[in-house]
Amino acid sequence: MSINRIAMVVVVAGYVLVNLLMQADFFAGRDIFAKYQQTANAVDALRVAQEAYYAKTGFLLLLLILMVFGVSFPLGFAVSFSAYAIMMSVFFGVKLPTALYLAAAVALLATYLIDKRHRA
Q1: Taking the model in full, what pTM does it have?
Q2: CB 98 within 8 A of CB 85
Q3: Of 34, 62, 102, 112, which one is least surrounded by beta carbons within 10 A?
Q4: What is the pLDDT of residues 63-104, one digit of tens each?
Q5: What would the DSSP string read from start to end of 60-118?
């Protein structure tokens, strides 16, 4: 298994874990977006939810567009996840969750380039 494939598996597993924890928080009645930003009122909470939604939708939309235009999945995933990490950091600042997204994006891009260099 290539180093890029390992990085993708780790990132996807982490993303699944984060989403499972968000589901648990949701069904327990907790604020699922509190890890990004604490809010004082419902209007601010809605803004945080909207910004997280925009970033997640942008990630998926960019990945789909890249796939339609024939970009390889490993590169498309690295680029779209990087865009997601940047959007989340712009919206919420660099905190633990967004720092982890940025680190994952760097790992995906770096391992893609390492694998590409070794294939050449």
Answers
A1: 0.90
A2: yes
A3: 34
A4: 999 999 999 999 999 999 999 999 999 999 999 989 999 999
A5: HHHHHHHHHTT--HHHHHHHHHHHHHHHHHHHH-S-HHHHHHHHHHHHHHHHHHHHHHH
